[in-house]
């Protein structure tokens, strides 16, 4: 969907135009599902969360500010929807806080041997808490303070979860090479 078409579609969505809503849904379905799958491994649950996210978009479309990219706003809604789901389902596993999480010697070139789908599958094997922090920090670019506020955890827990996620990913990569 091109920029001008997106602008027109969003204007129609503000007027509750069902055809425009369907067009937006179809245009962003794959992108949205890929975001949800980063946080929730189950495809059916991811689809439900995606649909919940679209409902939030359609009911709160007046809050979207056209001077900002729609994709960023939509992605933020999806991430928050997934985080709320994880909170409700109590999938945040307790972790011991580290006063200072030491970096695991995680070399990104280890991923060079894998396709995008294989990397996604490896990340899906992480526990929900580790996967969420890993995605928010490494993929989305949030700082630990922001992650702590979003997930209602301490910065130390965020650091610890990232440390453990990286360590687990290294183990999974080494295991898959055998």
From TrEMBL:
Residues 117-169 form the RNA polymerase sigma factor 70 region 4 type domain. Keywords: Sigma factor, Transcription, Transcription regulation. InterPro entries: RNA_pol_sigma-70-like (IPR039425), RNA_pol_sigma-70_dom (IPR014284), RNA_pol_sigma70_r2 (IPR007627), RNA_pol_sigma70_r4_t2 (IPR013249), RNA_pol_sigma_r2 (IPR013325), RNA_pol_sigma_r3/r4-like (IPR013324), WH-like_DNA-bd_sf (IPR036388). Coiled coil: none annotated. It holds the Pfam family Sigma70_r4_2. One of its GO terms (molecular function) is sigma factor activity. The keyword Transcription regulation applies. It comes from the Bacteria. Residues 24-89 form the RNA polymerase sigma-70 region domain. GO terms for biological process: DNA-templated transcription initiation. Belongs to the sigma-70 factor family. ECF subfamily. This is RNA polymerase sigma-70 factor (ECF subfamily). It comes from Arcicella aurantiaca.
């Amino acid at each position: 969907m091109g920029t001008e078409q997106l602008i027109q579609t969003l204007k129609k969505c503000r007027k509750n135009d069902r055809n425009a809503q369907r067009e937006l849904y179809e245009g962003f379905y794959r992108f949205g599902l890929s975001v949800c799958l980063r946080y929730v491994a189950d495809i059916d649950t991811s689809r439900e969360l995606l649909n919940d996210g679209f409902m939030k978009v359609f009911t709160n479309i007046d809050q979207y500010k056209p001077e900002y990219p729609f994709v960023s706003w939509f992605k933020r809604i999806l991430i928050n929807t997934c985080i709320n789901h994880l909170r409700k389902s109590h999938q945040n596993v307790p972790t011991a806080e580290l006063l200072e999480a030491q970096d695991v010697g995680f070399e990104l070139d280890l991923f060079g041997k894998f396709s995008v789908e294989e990397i996604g599958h490896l990340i899906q094997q992480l526990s929900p808490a580790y996967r969420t922090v890993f995605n928010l920090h490494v993929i989305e670019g949030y700082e630990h303070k922001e992650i702590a506020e979003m997930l209602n955890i301490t910065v130390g827990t965020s650091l610890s979860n990232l440390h453990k996620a990286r360590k687990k990913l290294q183990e999974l990569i080494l295991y898959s090479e055998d």
